[in-house]
Specification:
The chain is mainly alpha-helical. Helix content is 71%, strand content 0%. The protein contains eight helices and no strands. It is globular, with a radius of gyration of 21 Å. The termini are far apart.
């Protein structure tokens, strides 16, 4: 069997291939992120009777976050505002910080709610929990819906356990929690 000669790829071919792949990703990711942004905006703007809320505490998103916030109580950050920030983090991880800033209003209010130990636990959870919607959509496209669901849930479980270990070791070492 004879192999063809190896040659350096042309810059034009590489550029066109990179542009095609980048354009495809941006179109797919933008669509998913745009839809997720609209959903988060809707949930944060309206209450259950579809009235515009003046305080985000009365929104549908805050209500959903209130349901899931007890899950995070053992980790030291069971406040509905932190849960809301984690929900918006599914859209993009960067939005966790901005959502916390908006909901708490000031850094002082946030630091009053979080102890150094619970802040470390929250940081570990944020680093490890499921990637953004665009990444999950890419997993779904490549591997299927079951795998995407498994990846999202599995990473959240790993993040919860790791944050719990940090919280537990901190309490065992006597760090104020």
């Amino acid at each position: 069997m004879e192999l063809p000669n190896y040659r350096m790829p042309g810059a034009k071919n590489v550029g066109l291939l990179l542009w095609d792949k980048a354009k495809d990703f941006l179109q797919r990711a933008f669509t998913v992120i745009f839809i997720a942004t609209i959903v988060i905006w809707f949930l944060q703007t309206f209450d259950t009777r579809l009235n515009i809320v003046s305080d985000s505490q009365d929104s549908i998103l805050a209500m959903v976050a209130g349901w899931i916030s007890p899950i995070f109580t053992p980790l030291g950050f069971g406040d509905w505002r932190v849960s809301t920030a984690l929900i918006t983090g599914f859209m993009a991880k960067e939005s966790v910080v901005s959502t916390l800033s908006v909901l708490f209003g000031s850094t002082a209010a946030l630091t009053a709610m979080l102890t150094p130990l619970s802040a470390m636990s929250l940081l570990i959870f944020c680093l490890l929990y499921t990637p953004c919607v665009a990444a999950i959509a890419a997993v779904r496209r490549e591997l299927g819906g079951r795998w995407a669901f498994g990846v999202a849930v599995g990473q959240c479980v790993v993040a919860w356990v790791a944050a719990g270990v940090v919280q537990l070791f901190g309490l065992l070492l006597g760090v104020a929690g």
